[in-house]
Amino acid sequence: MIKGLAITPPVLGRISIGRVVEKNGKRLPEKDDQFTLTTQVQQQGNWIIHPLDEEYRKDAPGGKLRSIPVRMLFNDPDLNLRAEYSMFDRQTGRPVCVGNGEKCRRFTQSGVQTLECPSPLLCDFAANGGCKPYGRLNVKLGDDDEIGTFIFRTTGFNSIRTLTARLRYYHEISGKLLACLPLQLRIRGKSTTQSHRSAIFYVDLTVRDGMTLTQAVIAARELENQRKETGLDQDALDAIAKEGFGNAAFEFGEEEIPAVLEEFYPTGEGHSDTDAESQTSRTDQPTASHQKARLTEKLDRRITMQNQH
User: Fold this and answer.
1) What is the reported pTM?
2) Dihedrals φ, ψ of 147, to 5°?
3) I need a surface site. Which of 26, 45, 180, 282 has the fewest CB within 10 A?
4) Confidence band of 167 (pLDDT split at 50, 70, 90)
5) Residue 219 has pLDDT above 60, yes or no
6) Is residue 104 part of a domain?
7) Percent share of the chain, pLDDT over 90
């Protein structure tokens, strides 16, 4: 295995909940309330729609694809969804710094170094606002390829937080049979003060329509027994996948550059069409340095009030 090359799940297509529109000569992100499945090929600046998109959309109410039947490739939740604070070079789309809120891996003049990661709110290196949570979720769609996946990329807090919780909960409650559970991705909507009470959309993970959690766990146990009888080794798959992810300092491939630029820098150097909720968070959001100053001001005010009492 080539050292320094992250070995990631084979990707057959993309899942997005946003779209790109052209305004004043610029391609800008626009929120949407449905999924779109695309290939990894672009034509005239647009991603080509995947055949599964039409297949699933036929049975969708009103033709809007708001849920997709999926299975996880791995039992380990952290292998299915990798989420970290990430900063990319605005011009090249290559990773500059990736961290988890405690430690980060950062490109420096001395090479890749492991440093403290205080999170974007308190990080001077992230003062320009370029560091955001970045999640990659790989899921299996259809039955044509047992190892191939579709990838959903997001910088949205709501999607990352919800998907992380669901994956961990389903993993434990099913007896660690996450890869055998019949699940579905679902579009959710909410309004917040940050969105000025307008609707934003994010991705959730639930058991499939028409099934209870108990029924889903029973189905997972039956599938697990079938796999064992045929000799499929899920534990070995998880182990080799973990080794592959850890084979490089960053989970990154050259083919990911267009998607990174779209998601992180939609109005200037790139475009965006991946996660509608993240479009709201990009607007009217203070930079890290402003947030740090505001937090310091609040703490000073609280200390003053305590001293007065």
Assistant:
1) 0.81
2) -110, -25
3) 45
4) very high
5) yes
6) no
7) 52
pLDDT in tens, 225-272: 999 999 999 999 999 999 999 887 788 766 667 667 666 666 543 333
- Does residue 18 contact residue 279 with C-beta atoms inside 8 Å? yes
The predicted pLDDT at position 127 comes to 82
Task: Flag whether 158 is in a domain.
Answer: yes
- Structural domain includes residue 125: no
How far is 48 from 299, CA to CA, in rounded Å? Answer: 51
Count of structural domains, the chain: 1
Name the residue range of residue 155's domain: 11-80+137-280
Place of tokens 């044509």: 144
Quote the CA–CA distance of 160 and 67 in Å, as a whole number: 17
Burial code (b: 16+ CB inside 10 Å, e: under 16) for 195-213 equals beeeebbbbbbbbbeebee
3-class secondary structure, 289:
helix
CB 16 within 8 A of CB 274: yes
Angstrom CA distances, 71 to 74, 94, 138, 216, 218, stand at: 9, 30, 9, 12, 15
Residues forming beta bridges with residue 103, ordered by sequence position: 116
**Would 127 be classed as within a structural domain?**
no
| Distance, CA of 145 to CA of 140 (rounded, Å) | 8
**DSSP code per residue over 217-256:** HHHHHHHHHHHHHHT--HHHHHHHHHHHHTTSSS---GGG
Q: What does the alpha-carbon distance between residue 270 and residue 27 come to, in Å, rounded to a whole number?
A: 8
Structure tokens at 215: 């029924």
